[in-house]
């Protein structure tokens, strides 16, 4: 069996019915279903929409609701995130095992310097999603995601610098284990 078939079999199936909370809306529900009001004054009839008689406060509330609906990512994002986590975990197995059997190599050092920080990034992203929910802590969630992304980029850059200017990750680990 290939890795792709193993991941396809072990990935959770998406639910057919998705609540409207997770679906993206292109138009505001209030504006789409607003009835037309007809006003009669001095024998003339004028037709206006309900949206044009709203106050700026209600418009800002409707815009905020629309932003919240558009910001939801839905079930599909979670399935892709889950697959990326498993793929990075499976990719680490041959990277670590080849270095144990054959020793240090610059290509495996470079791949390890990319895959390992990405795997840690995905794991911390799941923790942020679970323990700092966007609905409860919107600013904290955004700050934690920025911090997670910035730290991943810095760690990848540090691994690149260490692999190119120093002895490399696997040689360092071998020296630590033999010391």
Q: Let me know the number of strands.
A: 2
Name the beta content range.
Answer: 5-15%
Distance between the termini: 40 Å
The general outline is elongated
Largest sheet: 2 strands, antiparallel
Helicity level, as a percent range?
55-70%
Short descriptors:
179 residues, 67% helix, mainly alpha
How would you characterize the overall build of this protein?
With 179 residues, this protein is mainly alpha-helical. Helix 5 (106-131) packs antiparallel against helix 6 (138-165). Strand 1 and strand 2 (44-49) form a beta hairpin. Residues 15-23, 25-41 and 45-51 have low confidence and may be disordered. It has helices at residues 3-10, 29-32, 56-71, 75-102, 106-131, 138-165, 169-178; strands at 36-41, 44-49. Strands 1-2 form a two-stranded antiparallel sheet. The protein is elongated.
In short:
This protein has 179 residues and is mostly helical.
List the helices and strands and how they pair.
Layout: H1 3-10, H2 29-32, E1 36-41, E2 44-49, H3 56-71, H4 75-102, H5 106-131, H6 138-165, H7 169-178
Antiparallel strand pairs: 1-2
Helix pairs in contact: 4-5, 5-6
